[in-house]
Design a protein that fits this description.
Elements: H1 2-52, H2 56-70, E1 73-78, E2 83-86, H3 101-107, E3 112-118, E4 123-134, E5 137-147, H4 148-200, H5 214-249, E6 253-257, E7 263-266, H6 268-274, H7 284-287, H8 291-303, E8 307-313, E9 316-324, E10 331-337, H9 339-375, H10 380-410, E11 419-422, H11 423-440, E12 444-449, E13 454-457, H12 459-475, E14 481-488, E15 492-499, H13 521-526, H14 533-543, E16 547-551, E17 561-568
Parallel strand pairs: 12-14
Antiparallel strand pairs: 1-2, 1-5, 3-4, 4-5, 6-7, 6-10, 8-9, 9-10, 11-13, 14-15, 15-17, 16-17
Helix pairs in contact: 1-4, 4-5, 9-10, 10-14, 11-12, 12-14
The structure holds adenosine-5'-diphosphate.
């Protein structure tokens, strides 16, 4: 700051000095010239009488005497340029002056001026010449001149004084500017030091400025800001500590990755899962080289849809939940170890499958023997009891059959026998099974299907799905109609099976796809239900990547139930 001020002050002072000095010099020379003209005019009065009397030697004497008094060279020249008198020289030895510029002008009737080198005296001189009139005619010229040397001496004296004043002004200005700069830069330096301290984390610094000016306001605001940052920082640190202790206390592994795929936060459980402690700041794919995991994160990042999926890491199974944070573009992942749960689930499923399998044969043979016994019995009571036994055996056989179907569907290795299947053909076959029942119950069947709707599916499973749904529709409808509609849309086939039966009340709707979930146990038992039909349907739909929904009542003003299935094509 001071440096710039020095440059500015010096620049201004030098320019002012040069400008004013040249002005003063010009003014001085102009005044000098007009004084010389006046002097010449006064001298003229003395010179003319001597010229008229032709007393040239007196004239020469006169100018020499005057020169001594006024220290000015005086020359008198005729109109032909002959020097008649000169205060510094012998006029007789001097050359003709007709062509001297100032004399030339004077002889033309004007005032001549010239600043030039004198060939007579060999010095630089300032000349002023005026015409001499005698009886209205120009008879010569009177010239007065000064040594430029003298003028310069005088000017140098002025210049020196001027320089002294300029120098003093510069000194005073510099002193003022030094004090001013110090006054400004000191608090600024203090503020800059305090900012550095705050940046280093020392929030207790304070800036003390005694002046009562804008900088004081600034310093006060700065101190307030420092205090505010300290409070916020303490708050954030506290919150961070809390967050860290929460994160380390949760059992699930947790990481947060930024949009560049770097891990910005992780908890101990996650580090334990992957058996690596140095993960913060690394790319997630550097530390977890599992394609399923990478694909899952990529899918969530691209589609911006949060997802939960089961992933095997090593010999463990994890439920991985991936959540995309919309604002910060960070992704949160939690890994929940479900290996044990999965193991128990598999044991249970295997157990059910084994038991069902083991029960199937003895049950069928029991049923066969009961039927044989029944043929040989005539006692009505015994026949009645045998009927009850037969009905119950049928029920158990149905349950076992459904359980076997379910466990087959649930088996991980279950592969669909995918082939192009014509839905109208399958539905026609299924409806044949129910023709008799529909007739018995006097139900009306509406069949709305476009011909040749083809899907990629497993024919046995799709048939099973229709059997279960249509069987339910007939079972739970006492009168009215059953409507089956199949429509092709752009990306899927929509199947709707609707009845006008007893319907399903709201509170049961979310649970009817659960295993063994029946609304009215005695009714279901009477109708030969097992509570597994809809579970099987849902499994089949999911295996075909479809979706199933149920509406009761079906929103068309009628009673009843409507199942809607979408299967992608
Ligand atoms: P169930 O073998 O008992 O029919 P499901 O799993 O097929 O077992 O069905 C579960 C329950 O859902 C049934 O007990 C019944 O109460 C109800 N349900 C299923 N379909 C219908 C329907 N079309 N109308 C009314 N209730 C139904």
């Amino acid at each position: 700051m001071f440096g710039w001020q020095v440059i500015t002050i010096l620049g201004f002072s030098i320019s002012i000095f040069l400008f004013s000095f040249s002005l003063i010099k010009k003014h001085y020379l102009t005044t000098l010239q007009s004084n010389l003209i006046n002097l010449a005019k006064t001298l003229n009065l003395k010179v003319i009488p001597l010229l008229e009397k032709k007393q040239f030697s007196e004239l020469d004497l006169l100018v020499k005497n005057l020169d001594k008094d006024i220290n000015t060279r005086i020359t008198v020249v005729t109109n032909e340029g002959i020097v008649l008198a000169d205060s510094k020289n012998n006029p007789k030895t001097m050359e003709n002056h007709k062509n001297r510029p100032e004399i030339k002008k004077a002889l033309q009737g004007n005032t001549g001026q010239s600043l030039r080198f004198s060939t007579t005296i060999k010095k630089e001189m300032l000349y002023v010449a005026i015409p001499i009139y005698q009886k209205g005619k120009i008879t010569g010229a009177l010239r007065v001149s000064l040594f430029v040397e003298h003028i310069n001496l005088l000017l140098n004296d002025i210049k020196f004084k001027f320089l002294q004043v300029t120098f003093i002004i510069i000194l005073i200005s510099l002193l003022i500017s030094l004090i001013f700069s110090r006054n400004i830069s000191k608090p600024i330096k203090e503020l800059s030091w305090a900012s550095n301290e705050i940046a280093k984390g020392n929030f207790d610094v304070k800036v003390n400025i005694r002046n009562n000016d804008e900088l004081k306001d600034f310093a006060d605001s700065f101190n307030y800001m420092g205090q505010k940052i300290k409070t916020l920082f303490t708050d954030i640190s506290q919150k961070k500590k809390e967050l860290n202790s929460i994160l380390s206390s949760i059992r699930e592994g947790l990481i947060v990755i930024d949009k560049e795929d770097r891990i910005v936060l992780s908890n101990n459980s996650f580090k334990d899962i992957i058996k690596n402690d140095l993960i913060d700041g690394k790319f997630y794919w550097e530390i977890l080289r599992e394609p399923n995991f990478t694909n899952l994160i990529k899918k969530v990042k691209n589609n911006k849809v949060n997802t939960i999926s089961e992933i095997e890491l090593g010999n463990k199974i994890f439920l991985v939940s991936v959540t995309q944070m919309s604002q910060s573009e960070e992704t949160i992942l939690t890994l929940n170890d479900i290996t044990e749960i999965k193991r128990t689930e598999t044991i249970k499923k295997d157990f059910v499958a084994n038991v069902s399998h083991e029960l199937k044969t003895p049950l069928t043979s029991i049923k066969g023997f009961v039927e044989t016994i029944e043929e040989n019995i005539v006692d009505k009571n015994t026949i009645h009891y045998l009927d009850i036994i037969k009905r119950n055996i049928d029920r158990v056989i149905n349950i076992v059959k459904d359980l076997l179907i379910l466990s087959n569907l649930e088996k991980k290795e279950t592969k669909l026998e995918l082939q192009k299947i014509n839905l109208s053909e399958i539905l026609n076959d299924v409806l044949k099974i129910f023709e008799q029942k529909i007739k018995e119950k006097h139900l009306k069947l509406n069949f709305d299907i476009e011909q040749n709707i083809i899907i990629n599916g497993d024919p046995f499973q799709i048939e099973q799905m229709f059997v279960n749904l249509i069987d339910n529709a007939i079972k739970y409808t006492e009168q009215g109609e059953i409507t089956i509609a199949v429509k092709q849309t752009d990306s899927s086939v929509k199947i709707e099976i609707e009845d006008t039966g007893i319907g399903i009340s709201k509170e049961h709707l979310p649970r009817i796809f659960e295993r063994f979930y029946v609304i009215d146990k005695s009714r279901s038992r009477k109708l030969g239900g097992t509570g597994l039909g809809l579970s099987i349907v849902k499994h089949i739909v999911l295996l075909h990547n479809g979706s199933i929904d149920v509406k009761s009542p079906p929103k068309n003003g009628r009673k009843g139930t409507k199942f809607i299935i979408n299967i992608p094509v």
